[in-house]
Structure formats: C-alpha cells, structure tokens
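Quick one, tokens below. Sequence please?
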C-alpha cells in the first residue's frame, strides 16, 4: 500500500494573540474533496485553543482557488505585512476568531 500525505497546513504564532498560516497544501490527487476546508477548520480550532484571536495569511495573486477558499471561509483582505508588504503578487487576508468557533461578526 502506498502511503501518501493528502495535505498539510502550518500555523505559526507571530504574536500574543495572532497566528499566521504559513502553508496550506493539498496534493492534486486529493483536491476537490473539501480537505482544504477541513484543514483550515482544524487550524482555526487549534488557534482558539492557543488563545489566538486572529489568523492572518498570504497567498499569491496567481492562486485564484486559494483566494476563493479564504474568502468563502470568512477571511477578509488586509494590507500586506512583513515581506509581503510591497509585493504586487501577494494577497493578504485575516480572520478574527471568537472562542466559540465562529468568526466575529459572522452572525454565528
């Protein structure tokens, strides 16, 4: 039996209540099955456990599927940060979290 990772995601603490998704990847053999959504749900759950109130991330302008995913999950565009501050090929997003598992302002 071939064992293959279906996907991965990395959450890094970048401040007392701020997390950053550094990587979200789903292998092409596993795309279209909701795995990216599930990985992001787990990241948000873990961020809450770590008492993070906000998650931010960066993706490329040439990754429209990723941009659509983040927008569908309630991430909102923010100005570039760090090394992405002046990058014309980057799109940055953030999502405020509450302790119950809902995005703040999402209505539940």
């Amino acid at each position: 039996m071939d064992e293959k990772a279906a996907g991965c995601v990395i959450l890094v603490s970048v401040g007392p209540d701020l997390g950053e998704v550094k990587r979200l990847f789903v292998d092409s053999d596993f795309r279209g099955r909701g795995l990216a959504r599930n990985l992001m749900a787990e990241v948000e759950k873990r961020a809450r456990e770590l008492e993070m109130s906000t998650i931010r991330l960066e993706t490329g302008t040439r990754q429209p599927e990723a941009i659509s995913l983040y927008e569908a999950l309630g991430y909102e565009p923010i100005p570039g940060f760090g090394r992405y501050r002046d990058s014309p090929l980057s799109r940055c997003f953030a999502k405020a979290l509450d302790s119950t598992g809902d995005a703040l302002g999402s209505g539940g």
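Residues 7-96 form a domain with the Aminopeptidase fold (CATH 3.40.630.30). Residues 35-49 form the longest helix (15 residues).
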